[in-house]
Write a structure and sequence with these properties.
6 strands, alpha+beta, 5 helices, Methane Monooxygenase Hydroxylase, Chain G, domain 1
Length: 220
């Protein structure tokens, strides 16, 4: 029997293991969160392809289950929620869309692929990730000290996907990859392209003249 999840379509992609911060202010999602909090239930996060109004949602079929880690209650019933992605799911049947989306879902199996190949790709991606983060931090005059990724290939691949500052549809493709090997291979190509782009954009002036921008990643 398929599990049933309350769904929260967003304009972002949540990866397994990644953290998500939500400011919940719409009545329907306040109701949804109340159900999740009172029943200690997870909810599903899906990329919304529409980018339009709240009543014109077009979520993708594959998303990530989110578990609530912390709730801060604000004025007017608003909530600040910190949640963490756990595992991937696929929508099998939408049960309803009012007041919020609910669906029967099935969980997606995590496949590493050939073990030796997964290990080699993980090691190569770790080195490339360090170069990427170094290029990302260079305009701020900062340096990356060290990187430690999980020994598990799938967990490492999701952490790399979360660290990459690329468009949401690209992250969605990484989320849906059929194996860790497939995901890591795609990430290596993305890292190479992003490193080249970032290095080409670095101005000749000193750090005090370089633009700054926030980094989204955390490797702790």
């Amino acid at each position: 029997m398929d599990d049933v999840l309350n769904l929260f379509p967003l304009n972002t992609v949540l990866l397994p293991g990644a953290m998500l911060q939500l400011h919940v202010f719409e009545d329907r999602y306040k109701e949804m969160m109340a159900q999740c909090i009172d029943g200690e239930l997870p909810f599903g996060v899906l990329l919304d392809r529409s980018g339009l109004t709240a009543n014109d949602l077009d979520p993708v079929a594959v998303g990530t289950v989110a578990v609530i880690r912390k709730v801060t209650r604000l004025s007017a019933g608003r909530l600040f929620v910190i949640a963490q992605g756990t595992r991937r799911f696929r929508i099998e049947r939408v049960i309803g869309t009012m007041p919020f989306w609910r669906a029967e879902i099935s969980f997606l199996e995590e496949v590493d692929g050939p073990q030796a190949k997964a290990g080699r790709l993980r090691e190569a991606a770790t080195l490339r990730l360090r170069d990427y983060l170094a290029a990302l931090l260079a305009p701020r005059g900062e340096e990356i000290e060290s990187i430690e990724l999980p020994s598990d290939a799938a967990a490492s691949s999701y952490l790399i996907a979360d660290a990459l500052q690329v468009a949401s549809p690209v992250k969605q493709e990484l989320l849906e990859a059929g194996s860790a090997v497939e995901r890591l291979r795609a990430e290596l190509a993305l890292l190479d392209a992003e490193i080249e782009r970032l290095r080409s954009e670095q101005p000749a002036e000193g750090p005090e003249h370089r633009p700054t921008f926030p980094a989204r990643f955390s490797l702790n």
